[in-house]
Amino acid sequence: MSNDDRLKLLLVDDSEDDALLLLRELRRGGIEPHYRLVDSEDSLLDALKAEEWDLVITDHNMPGFSSLRTLEVTKETSHDLPVIIVSGTIGEEVAVGAMKAGAQDYIMKDNLSRLIPAINREVKENSVRKAKREAETILEHMAYHDSLTDLVNRREFERRLASALETSRHTGKKHVLLYLDLDQFKIINDTCGHVAGDELLRQIAGILGSHIRASDTLARLGGDEFGILLENCDEAHALKLAETLCEDVREFRFVWQGKPFAVSLSVGMVIVTKDYRATTEILSHADLACYAAKDRGRNNVQIYQADDREMQQRQNDMHWTSRIQQALNSNSFYLCHQPMTALQTGPEEGLRTEFLLRMRQGPDIIPPGAFIPAAERFSLMSKIDYHVIEMAFAYLERTGLGRAPSGTFFINLSGTSLSDEGLFCYIRKMVDRYRIKPERVCFEITETAAIAHLNLTMGFINQSRQDGFQFALDDFGCGMSSFSYLKTLPVDYLKIDGSFVRNLLYDPIDVGIVDACNRVGHAAGLKTIAEFVENDEVKKRLVELGVDYAQGFGIAMPQALA
Fold it and tell me: What domains, with CATH codes, occur in the chain?
């Protein structure tokens, strides 16, 4: 209905007298319409384009024109607009055909008593149809757009990217994908709240959208990540645009509750050519390039290059990341242990052994050196450490070794876990669950990790030692620390780095380093352990130097837990 609540009626009739009779009947029924009378296909088309109508009433036979053609033109222009045929000459067969063609009703001119009820019914039903169509339009928009920024969403973006790739295959044309990550989003989101984070994303979307062409696609891909698809675009233009976006975002200041925040973009850029097999490959390369941009200082653009060694390494790491997640979810990690032996005479102290992590994938056994670098790079080490702690404690409980009167079992912790505030509570929870003595467990931390997180390491060690846990400083001598750190770190064991032990028989400098580490360790009241002991000759030399324990292939090979 129109704004003045009057029926907007389009009359199609070549007889003005018949039209007036029809209008008089409407007025008698309480309807005072806003109407327009047309008598040809051209005038009908003009009227449909000029205004929105609530109803069309058409005669059946007109010179060179008919109700069936009125139906066709109306449906082509406005699919839901109801059409009622009012005629004095229409037969039943023609009427049935008109209803099948889309007419809502047909009424004879000599019996207009049905006209008002038919109009009221169709106006009501048309209102329902319009509401349904509007709801469908909204739902369709929501299916392909991000609710926060109103940009294209990831699903639609990937569909358009697939279409662009198909175009490249058939025409050879090149496109460009820009993968953008907002560098400081997490800081603002965490310190100011999600409402501030949402507003920042909306404002960034506005900045990005102001620079792209009508033929380009800007999308929010998730979180603080955006994508831009530049169709039929050369590398030079895309690079210039990406640099402009970085500059504009860098100069932008987000203000929240009177406080300004600086933000920046890291952009990964991929040239989309016919050589790509799938959109997933394009997006993966864009993600790699974006991470490379972050690694190289943020606020810059990195073009994906297949021969870039750093990108190859990251791609390999990302491959391992998915395998690590899968291994954690499927319990494909398992523990081995490598015993140590005492080199000096003394009272029996029980079994000393170190738990070692392995990954099982089918028939393959994968050592930690293959996946640990990727886990460290993608912040998965804490998850792995938690998993190892539970597996080790469960083994100690199952075998009774965790409650034995003697024995020490070494568990490695990463530097990432040392900065995890929940680690100490988790360890206590596992102690209660598996009912082991903390005195049976010695946590190993590397020298470099301990010093990199010195304050956190000190707090964690002091808390844990109060419960009875022991600590070993691993890989000592290979990092950047000096012996003075031993005065600060309250540990129980010093593990001398195996790179010095391996060549002990041939390199006097390595002998001096091992001897110095052992003497200083003893001066600090620590027990010393030499790693990488591979034969009896090295073992004998370590006995002469006074090292307390030895570990390595010459002592015992790693063994799967029973």
Answer: 8-142 (3.40.50.2300), 154-306 (3.30.70.270), 325-560 (3.20.20.450)
